[in-house]
Amino acid sequence: MQRRYRERAGGVNVTVSGIDKGIDTARSTAEHRELKTELTRFMMSYKFATDEMMTKINILKEEFSSIHDYSPIEHVNFRLKSPEGILKKAVRKGCPLVLDDIRAQIQDIAGIRITCSFISDTYRILDMLTNQQDITVLEVKDYIAAPKPNGYKSLHLIVAIPVFMSDRVEPVTVEIQIRTVAMDFWASLEHKIFYKYQGEVPVDLVTDLKQAADVANRLDVKMERLHDQVVALEPDGRAEPDILSIAGLSQYALPEGFLTAIARARLDDELPERDRA
């Protein structure tokens, strides 16, 4: 009887031990799932911030194209750092592996690059973006006015944009680079060279890159001068057809007298009551 009791007791002990282990495993699984959910929301917030900024940029591009028959934006690219890339940068910076710390210390997880035709366009886009009320400008670095020693030129912005999640509003940072086509071509080549040589670029190549940056700058200046000359030759008073052309949509023919009626109504609003017909 005593032996049987000990066997049962031993069996109970084994069972309890198994339950404890199962609880620990369940707790570990639950924590793993929770951390995975947090990281997913973390990454999604940057994806949504990029979507918001891309929408703003595309609106500006289409508005400018429709109103001015010209777009200062040639093309736009965006990217998100991978979790692996974020981890590597956090370790390199000595940033604690806590999502709040990563969000505060690594501000280029989401990145957008805007490529423009001319130098003046880069500043025009900068003004249009920074004047938007829901964009908070955290930092602006003007490497066009003050290039890096290697010749690199670009405008760099760090902005925060509100992202409306299901349960909260999250301010998310996005890095924006604005540069000309020539600057972008040079930067792409420079990146490939530094990647190939793993940062140990021969002195003669560094010198050639700097000279190429100077040539690219002269090209930017000359192309903008030619553009200004062409614009100056366009007549101001040429007749325009009564057609609304909206980027991405069909052209709309205006009803006869529509613009005249709007102009008359606006004039009536501006006149004092006694002067109205």
Automatic annotation (TrEMBL):
InterPro entries per record? GTP_Pyrophosphokinase, NT_sf, RelA_SpoT
Q: Does the keyword Cell membrane apply?
A: no
Protein's UniProt keywords contain Kinase: yes
Pfam families, from UniProt?
Answer: RelA_SpoT
Which residue intervals define the domain RelA/SpoT in the entry? 78-201
Q: Which CDD domains match?
A: NT_Rel-Spo_like
Name by which UniProt lists this protein = GTP pyrophosphokinase family protein
